[in-house]
């Protein structure tokens, strides 16, 4: 089954659990990135805190870069789990 195919996550209880865990991680990173940008934006209103705001913008940007990385890691994990099932089926025959 190809990457990013919906059926990969619905294959069994293990794939559903892996999918759910990655979705929780993705959502957590999303909230952290948004929070970093919001706080960074507020800090930019104060001259003395602009450097801290700049750092939070960098952290938020890095977190936004983590999101597609999590998605790819999830899909590779689900894909590999399918390959393991195929191996089991071949040995059972």
UniProtKB/TrEMBL annotation:
Pfam families hit by this protein? YrhK
> Could you name the domain of life of the organism this protein comes from?
Bacteria
Which residue range or ranges hold the YrhK domain?
21-75
InterPro entries in alphabetical order: YrhK_domain
Membrane-spanning residues where?
21-46, 52-73
Keyword annotations of the record = Membrane, Transmembrane, Transmembrane helix
* UniProt-recorded name of the protein: YrhK domain-containing protein
